Automatic annotation (TrEMBL):
It holds the Pfam family UCH. SUPFAM superfamilies: Cysteine proteinases. This is ubiquitinyl hydrolase 1. Residues 135-168, 730-878 are annotated as: Disordered.
Length: 1228
């Protein structure tokens, strides 16, 4: 029995004894219901099983069907008509026959509704043969063989041994039967009927929508209310209405049975007394076919209004149609009067109505009995009034297919079980509504039968859950924007990611041994809920194989008689020996090994348990050597995994790191160089400290280990060292700040030989033929700032070449030399982190993107006599053992900068010449950095002539090009164009910033800046806009050496293009946009509104409509112009293809928040197979198509946020780089 951990821990379902409180077990077996399949109900999530069983879907019980057949507040009447006795002798030749009167009723199975003044075709039948279907139904029909066994679930159709089911279970097939194919057919045009089939017996039912009567129901109502509102002096209001309708009926009688052809003056006293004349009366006679005409009165010139009788000669088409209409109206009006008079006897007691020749009898009891809904079949009134009128439960009753008025606990249980039987895919929906009803009863202190409570417990034991349970399960596993994983659990999250999240959460549960059993049980239930909701066999297999029985780690190690520090190779050897010696204990030992695998987070042990083979055995080849290896998650390290995989694909970088694989701290310390030696080398525009050098060498040493495993290991994925992750995710400054948090500040430039660590941690000596053993638990983070770094003020960074103090963090400066901050897409932020998708949620968003280009006096070079202020004191932060492994998403851009800084620092040659930022001898500079020229030109005419004529120019290195992603409809060229030519504000003056590339880098990294700021909400958000890009991009137009004439022409076209785009943006987006539809809606509202008495103003409406047309025309013109201008730009540069770059990597962020989400990336299989791509999703690496990489992401939350291109003809990418033993065999 699974743990009962559902929903609110304070609800009535917790800690209840099943046997003492809920009655005996097997409640479902007490319900009369057949056709259930236990296996199918337990595997309700299995789509293949559902397809095979072909169940008919949701159904309804008879009382709800009765309400669905026709408005439950309206009665249906069977109508019979007799021909009118002759009014004249001899009878006219056109007198209607008895057959004509009979067929005036639309169909033998048509029933009249007075409120609708129309008909409903309704019939029911017990037959093993269904009526001919008009079309194939969207849902399967019930099993016909099963239906044939029983004529009817109720009444005379019951089986001799008693009914197998409490009542019918009806299934609707909308517009499934053509009424013209019935016997007898419906002959008055096309009419499609809804088909209702009982899945348990041979009964079926057909029903139509309301067939309108001759006189529309609204007109009948208005006419009647008008007469009631203006009663005759000698009649009651309702008698007045009846008299008026009788007058209309008499006029029809005279036309049909007297062949009265004389015009009927409507202004004469008799007519006015009987019926009067107004718009309603005129509409009634128009509908009946009596046109109005003006005739002269005798010899005078006076004309009077008359009604002209319609033709009724059946030998003419017009006469036949008019005759049929009048006969139908005669029947309907007679039936209406018969029903109305019967319902208002008290009001009619002093009135003598005319004799009617039509009879109307209510058939509510008849059809309710036929479908099983009669009160004699299903009693009413068992639900307390407080629940019967509780509107919040209406959706629950309806979903279960029943009405509250017929509630009994047995019928509610039957309704629930029948829905689960016939519609297993929605089992959890039905359970949620059942639980809602029962919980509402409990909350309102209504007595709940023990059997019904017992049914809830039984269903819980079968792992039934509600949407709230599913949401809780997702939260337990760490999903949610503000939860551990930082990503919502939606369809884009794959099963492997969920399984890893479950394993990580279970591993965290071991940290609190006092509550570990309950937490693990909750997590097991959570995974099963998620697996079933997704219908994932893979997750269910993981749950089945890994859920365990609650064995503790101590018991697991004791069971196998091994110490806790045993290595995995020895552990597997001991396990195999124990199983061989004691086969009867194999299951318990397997459980022990499973617990150890979970506690140690060992993928090797998991694979051994799943396959029986040790993945560390070099004789076992798991996957093709041509496939790259994945990286296992250490918590929220999906971005770090993508970054490390990206580094590995870069051949020169990989080789440089491999050269330091055996380096250690001693080799650095023995050189005994001075602080002056350190000052000769700069990284990221600043000096580095001994401490940072030591740290960087340790990082690169661990990175080299990882690269070695990616090349040689035979497992599908490698687990990075936790220390490597820590060094990548935590900057050196963060370490220093936390270590000296009780001081006012830190100046790491004061490091001396005395402060250096004597030796770095020894390089791991694990066997390279197998992946390194995972540590038993995550290390204590040296800083609490890993996940919530204190915001650093970047606005003070210099826009010029300024020496920053040695303690400045390595983060952004490692990849982004100081640059000018610009507005919009031209902004190359001084801090990569402030513009990345994963920027820290604790960092305040900048509300004003326009930043002045100026130098901050607080960050002058050390030689100018000014000292930067110390860091302010802050409270010591508590460290969390799980902060590294299971925290929130780290700042992705700071992580990249930190890694690059450490790689470049570790590669410094202190025995060589001094280096500067412009020196490209470093592999990092050589691969990732290009050189750009920036020009600052005046735009304002208000500046003095000296400033107007001045042009400020400088050259800088760059490692990223930044593309602002705010609007839809832009491609990569558009974004880059705005980067290379933008407007910035400097000293309160608008300046044009022109940027050009002097020296293109081998690897071009394009940052798609998706973090935007909403000025209205004062919140940052992630733009999901699609930016179109292709496999190749040409940078010729952005080069400093580009054709000046073409640049000038492009600039002119872009100015016009930008203006057109701005106009479209203003008209279609923003707070009050779109304006065209706003004008249209205003016109529509003003022309139809009746709430306010406004004088008509046609001129205003015409003016507003004209504005709408003008805007639509402006949009059409601008959009056509945009397409033309865009093509002109491309035509201008179509022959400039010397600076060609090929797409090599695409980094993806999936999620709607700018601060949280999941990261993965695509890499092109270069150099040998450029048409192939790999998708790196943590431990899962798969081959994907080019179409997936270049796909339009409109509507998706998975969008590119960084693109990497390689210069065509430059051999720096070797994507797979795997050791292939076959090559050695070939050489031998």
């Amino acid at each position: 029995m699974p743990s009962n951990t559902w929903g609110d821990p304070n609800n009535e379902w917790e800690n209840l004894n099943t046997f003492d409180s809920w009655g005996e077990t097997g409640i479902a077996r007490k319900i009369k219901i057949d056709g259930r399949d236990e296996s199918e109900e337990l595997h309700w999530y299995d789509s293949s099983l559902r397809t095979w069983k072909a169940r008919p879907g949701p159904g309804v019980l008879p009382p709800l069907l009765a309400d669905m057949l026709h408005d439950p507040d309206h009665a249906l009447y069977s109508v019979s008509a007799q021909p009118h006795p002759p009014l004249v002798s001899p009878p006219p030749s056109h007198t209607p026959s008895a057959d004509e009167v009979r067929t005036a009723i639309p169909h033998p199975n048509a029933y009249f509704c007075r409120e609708h003044n129309g008909w409903v075709l309704l019939l029911w039948k017990s037959s093993t043969v269904l009526p001919p279907l008009h079309r194939n139904p969207e849902t399967p029909l019930p099993d016909q063989n099963r239906r044939k066994r029983t004529a009817s679930c109720v009444g005379d159709g019951e089986q001799p041994s008693g009914p197998s089911n409490m009542t019918h279970h009806w299934h609707r097939y909308e517009k499934a039967v053509d009424a013209t194919k019935l016997n007898p057919p419906y002959v008055y045009g096309e009419l499609l009927l809804d088909l209702y089939i009982c899945c348990q017996c041979s009964m079926y039912c057909l029903v139509s929508d309301v067939i309108p009567g001759v006189i529309p129901a609204p007109l009948v109502k208005e006419f009647t209310l008008d007469k009631i509102g203006h009663p005759a002096i000698d009649k009651t209001p309702k008698a007045t209405a009846v008299a008026a309708w009788e007058t209309v009926l008499t006029i029809i009688d005279n036309r049909l049975w007297r062949d009265e052809t004389r015009a009927l003056p409507v202004g004469r006293p008799r007519f006015q007394t009987k019926i009067g004349w107004n718009g309603h009366v005129e509409q009634v006679f128009q509908v009946l076919g009596f046109p109005t005409d003006k005739l002269a009165q005798g010899d005078s010139n006076t004309q009077e209004l008359t009604l002209q009788p319609p033709p009724i000669d059946p030998s003419t088409a017009e006469g036949k149609a008019s005759r049929t209409k009048l006969l139908r109206a005669w029947v309907e009006l007679s039936a209406w009067l018969a029903i109305y008079e019967k319902a208002n006897k008290e009001a009619m007691k002093d009135y003598n109505p005319i004799v009617l020749h039509v009879r109307a009898d209510s058939e509510r009891d008849l059809y309710q009995t036929a479908i099983g809904a009669h009160v004699s079949q299903l009693s009413r009134g068992h639900l307390p009034d407080i629940l019967a009128s509780y509107t919040a439960l209406e959706p629950s009753w309806k979903t279960l297919g029943m009405t509250p008025s017929t509630y009994t606990w047995e019928l509610l249980a039957f309704a629930y079980l029948a829905q689960c039987r016939c519609d297993p895919a929605n089992t959890m929906t039905y359970f949620a509504h059942l639980l809602t009803i029962v919980n509402t009863m409990l909350s309102l202190h209504v007595n709940v039968p023990g059997e019904l409570q017992g049914l809830i417990v039984e269903e819980r034991e079968r792992y039934r859950f509600t949407p709230e349970d599913y949401a809780n399960a997702a939260r337990l596993l760490g999903f949610g924007r503000d939860n551990d994983l930082g990503v919502e659990l939606d369809g884009e999250v794959d099963d492997d990611f969920i399984a890893q999240a479950w394993r990580s959460a279970r591993q965290r549960a071991w940290q609190d041994f006092s509550d570990v059993a309950r937490k693990r049980a909750q997590l097991n239930d959570a995974l099963k809920i998620v697996a079933e909701q997704r219908g994932s066999e893979a997750l269910l297999k993981v749950w089945s194989e890994e859920k365990g029985s609650g064995m503790s780690p101590e018991t697991a190690y004791q069971t196998l008689y091994v110490p806790k520090d045993v290595d995995e190779t020895m552990l597997l050897t001991v396990f195999s020996m124990r199983v061989e010696d004691q086969p009867s204990q194999s299951e318990r030992m397997r459980e022990a090994l499973s617990v150890i695998a979970e506690v140690t987070n060992s993928e090797r042990l998991r694979q051994f348990l799943a396959t029986g083979n040790d993945p560390g055995d070099s004789t076992v080849i798991n996957i093709s050597p041509e496939m790259p290896r994945g990286l296992n998650q250490l918590g929220n390290t999906c971005y770090l995994n993508s970054l490390l995989q990206y580094f590995y694909t870069i051949k020169d970088l990989r080789a440089a790191i491999a050269s330091l694989a055996t380096a250690d701290a001693k080799s650095f310390d023995e050189k005994k160089f001075t602080d002056d030696d350190l000052k000769r080398h700069r990284v990221g525009g600043r000096l580095v400290t001994r401490r940072e050098i030591m740290r960087s060498k340790k990082f690169v040493n661990l990175l080299a280990d990882l690269f070695w495993n990616l090349e040689f290991c035979e497992t599908t994925a490698v687990t990075p060292a936790i220390e490597l992750a820590k060094l990548a995710l935590v900057t050196s400054q963060d370490e220093e700040e936390d270590e000296t948090s009780d001081k006012a500040g830190t100046d790491s430039s004061n490091d001396t030989d005395a402060t250096l660590v004597d030796d770095m941690a020894p390089r791991s000596s694990f066997d390279r033929s197998s992946p390194p053993a995972t540590q038993l638990q995550s290390p204590k983070s040296p800083t609490g700032s890993v996940l919530g770094k204190r915001s650093r003020d970047r606005d003070g960074e210099s826009a010029m070449d300024v020496d920053t103090p040695a303690h400045t963090p390595p983060g952004p400066s490692a990849l982004s030399p100081p640059t000018m901050k610009a507005s919009g897409s031209g902004e190359e932020a001084a801090s990569f982190i402030e513009n990345a998708i994963g920027s820290s949620s604790k960092r305040p968003a900048t509300s004003d993107p326009d930043v002045e280009m100026q130098e901050d006096s607080s960050l002058q070079a050390p030689g100018n006599g000014k000292v930067p202020p110390p860091l302010p004191p802050r409270k010591a932060r508590q460290t969390d053992d799980s902060v590294m492994m299971f925290g929130r998403q780290h700042d992705v851009s700071e992580c990249m900068d930190n890694c690059m800084f450490q790689i470049e620092t570790a590669l410094l040659d202190f025995q060589g010449m001094a280096t500067s930022d412009d020196d490209k001898t470093s592999p990092v500079k050589r691969l990732f950095y290009g050189k750009k020229r920036q020009r600052l030109l005046s735009l304002s005419l208000n500046e003095d002539p000296l400033h107007q004529s001045s042009i400020h120019e400088k050259e800088d290195l760059f490692s990223h090009l930044h593309v602002n992603v705010a609007d839809e409809g832009f491609d990569l060229y558009d974004g880059l164009a705005r980067y290379f030519d933008d407007v910035v504000e400097v000293g309160g003056q608008k300046k044009r910033m022109e940027v050009s590339i002097v020296d293109p880098p081998p690897l071009l990294q394009v940052q798609l800046q998706r973090v935007q700021f909403n000025r209205e909400t004062q919140q940052a958000y992630k733009s999901q806009a699609y930016v179109k890009f292709g496999e190749t991009i040409y940078l010729d137009r952005f080069l400093d050496s580009a054709n000046p004439e073409k640049k000038a022409r492009s600039k002119t076209i872009y100015t016009e293009l930008t203006a057109a785009r701005d106009r479209v943006q203003r008209l279609t987006q923003g707070k009050h946009a779109p304006f065209a539809s706003a004008f249209a809606n205003t016109v529509d509202y003003l022309s139809k509104q009746t709430a306010i008495n406004l004088p008509p103003d046609d001129e205003l409406l015409v003016s507003l409509s004209s504005e709408e047309s003008l805007i639509e025309e402006q949009l059409r013109t601008d959009r056509e112009k945009m397409a033309t201008l865009k093509q002109q730009i491309e035509d201008t540069w179509k022959d400039e293809t010397s600076a060609a770059y090929e797409l090599t990597s695409v980094f993806i962020h999936r999620g709607s928040s700018p601060s949280w989400g999941h990261y993965f990336f695509y890499s092109r299989n270069l150099p040998d197979r450029p048409d192939e791509w790999f998708k790196y999703n943590d431990s899962d690496v798969s081959a994907v198509s080019k179409d997936e990489v270049l796909a339009d992401t409109t509507g998706s939350t998975a969008n590119p946020y960084m693109l990497v291109f390689v210069r065509k003809g430059v051999d720096v990418i070797d994507t797979v780089h795997r050791f292939n033993p076959d090559t050695l065999q070939e050489e031998e």
